User: Fold these one by one.
Assistant:
Number 1:
Amino acid sequence: MQNNWTKEELKAAVIAYIEMRTKSLNGESFKKKQYYEDLSHRFGRTIKSYEYRMQNISYVYSLMGRDWLKGLRPAKNVGTRVASEIEEIIKEIENQALSEPVSFQAEVDKLVHKKLQDKPKAVLEPKRYDIAITKYDRDPQIVAWVLMNAKGICECCNKEAPFVKDDGVPFLEVHHLRRLADDGSDSITNAIAICPNCHRELHYGQNKDILLTTIYSQVSRLIRE
Ligand SMILES: [Zn+2]
Ligand SMILES: [Zn+2]
């Protein structure tokens, strides 16, 4: 059996992944195999095992609602502990706090595939934590413009907003097509107003790439970043 991954090795793998992912997002060329070979020389595992680890990292990205690196389909079978470690390292490198703890979602995924157990007990006093977060300073004018421009129609599925808020404004959410965390701009050419279903699908759906292409072709003000 292979030895457990040290923090150092895991970190090296995540750094390689982020570098490849950034290059891919920026349309630069690179060879995945070269990265695996470098890791293999450094830490002694097979190229295949690094490729597999990269797919685990894709899985963590997918839990975070972020795009994973093309060609590396998310592979779920990573322990909850390693998944959190990967999340921590990504967080450390990208220097940002993440909305949903990956360990939580990984645990839910695991349980959903098991047989239904007894009804879980209520947690009457959930534990509280104080956490430090990094937020992007989104310009409210951009959000307001995009919302008003949509006139209550989802710019993805073209259906009406699911409900009207108590202030009389149709409820839509603003989504940045290239995430701010991926160096996307905060601008009306990179943001759309969409319904909550479409929003979730753009983050988590298996057809999100197709959806994205449709959006770019139907909303003329958008510019692909
Ligand atoms: Zn929609
Ligand atoms: Zn979004």
Note: Residues 7-112 form one domain.
Number 2:
Amino acid sequence: MSELVNKSLLGTAGLLAAAAMLVSCQSSSAANDQGTAVRAQADQGVTSRVISELSCSEGSEALGQDMTSGANWSMCFSVDIKLGMVLENVTFTPPNAEPMEIIDSMSLSQLEVPYDDGGRSTSDITSAGFGGGNMHSLTEIECPGTLVSHGIPTIGDGSKYGEIESRPVLCSDTVDGGLSYRSAEVGQLLAKRKNDWQLSTVSKVGWYEYLNQVTFGADGSIRPALGATGDLSPVDYSDAEHGSAVGEGEEHHASSHSHNAVWKIHWALGGTGAQQVEQYDTKDTNESGEQSPIVEGNYTKINEPATAQWTDARWWKVSAPGMLNADGHVMSYEIDMGKTDGFSFIDDEKNHGADADTDYDVAFTNADDCHIYATYNRGTCGRGVLDFVKNQSGEKLQDVVSWVAVGYHHVPRDEEQSPMEVHWQGFTMVPRDLTAQRLDVPEERSELNGRPEDWQGQLPPEGN
Ligand SMILES: [Cu+2]
């Protein structure tokens, strides 16, 4: 498989993969000793320039990747004992533009796994943790790209006992991202493929193994995702009402369960405290024009910390009202929920009652260092997201953190023994008006921005 991927990248993407750079900010551990990590000298174009301006804290690694669009992604990578992979100072540089910090920090903030027979529920981030010994070393099989070593404590968080051991825990991989565009006009074909940059780690919690992955697109998109593999839990077998027969006949029913994940994204777009959040909805007016129903699209401002629920055609945008693109439009990122199985955390229902609005899909709060976990949070700021929202009620929402909840209800199948095929859940953040045109406008289309000036009312030819 890795060969296939690599072959498909022999074009531009393959060359750009060589430009991926990793610069260690670690002072103590010589992370080079695995021999697999790349430590390129900082003299390779955009990546080196952006990385040199990143101030990654001690114990974190500066990573960068030039993309097929000519844009660049750079950021600081570190591993938290509980949260696992943490990405900070996530910076995007469009072609021929200055670097823009998009995200201050991002990570998972909880993963709850409740079993449908009622017998067991775990909160894997706060109880087990994705870092430390639970974060496994990777090989070339899991990672056809570049293995990156990072200092991981051998005991606990390393503050009291044990030592820091440099292990290859991060996979940095550029893969073919499919077709970026195709447009055939007046006999001329414009088409281009794109690459994706994937950062991933693997954490083992019980019988499950989780792939914690963030994909950075050549188009400026950011796609966090959680993949689950390993094995079905041998502890959690029940009956036909609460599970599926996975062995011969009708004897062994592996219990259905949910993987309830919340990602925390602290935005940096436009600078700390400079953001605004809006929710987009469409409204069917029940009126029709000559050929189609008339649909109204509206933005509603979310002025104070709040929770929100997804519905068809609804999405949110985090914008920086002080920053305009060359078209004079406010720069923003859009949060799109993928297919998600909605959920309420058990801990939230216990503490806020079953009738409360506990099953949010996204929540927005102002950044607070005490807000770490979506549930089982400690400190005076609250036990979880619902408390954070409640305690900040009436505050102006401006230093925006989005808590994105994506659930996956898992009904076991015969095919999941054994090991289990990876199943994925995640969401997407897409730039909206970050730049005035696409990042890599082909020369032939450089003037096309708005309704074409030479358009004189022609309709597309029949059969087009
Ligand atoms: Cu599962």
Note: The chain has a mean pLDDT of 89.
Number 3:
Amino acid sequence: MIAFDKVSKQFKQRDGNVFKALDEISFTIKEGEFVSLLGPSGCGKSTVLNLIAGFDTGYSGSILVNGDTIKEPAPDRVVVFQEHGLFPWLTVLENVAFGLKQKGISKKERQELAMEQIRAVHLSKFADRYPNELSGGMKQRAAIARALIMDPQILLMDEPFAALDEQTRLVLHQELEDIWMRTGKTILFITHNIREAVMLSDRVLVMSTRPGTIKKEFAVQAARPRDSADPLLHHVETSIMECLADELEKVIKEEMDDDSYSLKKNTFSDRDFGGMGGGI
Ligand SMILES: Nc1ncnc2c1ncn2[C@@H]1O[C@H](COP(=O)(O)OP(=O)(O)O)[C@@H](O)[C@H]1O
Ligand SMILES: [Mg+2]
């Protein structure tokens, strides 16, 4: 279980001023749960993920994973980033097997375990390819296989599909849901795409911006595997959109030079969220 209790995080800026990125954030994620953290760019999503990953230990409040304070990165918490991070000089098989080297497992066994994960993401025909010979979706599937081979308890995903086209993203959603249902991993998925968050998650934590707080939590009680035509999903999407509208207006105003700028009515209440990938 992951438990945040009144976690605040400040960054020192170059001009010496202190910037409050997270303000007393509290939430819990149960073992085996699929939770998304959703919010506009700059609201502190990656900051939360980095704290859980153990990349950053400078915060106030308490963060516990299975009752223990996080001191450093560990293989029970593996991260998949937007940029796949595969080594370009290694094949898919070598990339996926790479993390097992430190575990002192023989080469033959490493390759067998890697092939198992590669098959699970349906890349077995491409195991001998180099990353630059793969499509964007294939690279992300290889990155997921490389994370899963460490058999982490928690999979941390920071906008893993944000750079993919819409069709590829839909395929990856199914693949990730399959993996999650099969493995029972705890997944924290970060996105600024409302549809993606709702489609995948048991719960969506919506963040507000500057400083980042958890604004509201939405349970998504739709049946699994998810069906994109399920009206319940659309209902939750609409509720989240309403919850986020004023946050988005705040962000956009900050990025405009005109203080009196205001959004046209209904800008964010359009029911077609299909294109929200780059939206918020
Ligand atoms: N290392 C850092 N130093 C200073 N400011 C940072 C640093 N990392 C993040 N920030 C600031 O903290 C805020 C939250 O960042 P981040 O968590 O990356 O947002 P998100 O992932 O939601 O887009 C942003 O305003 C960002 O500029
Ligand atoms: Mg981020």
Note: The CA atoms of residues 40 and 248 lie 7 Å apart.
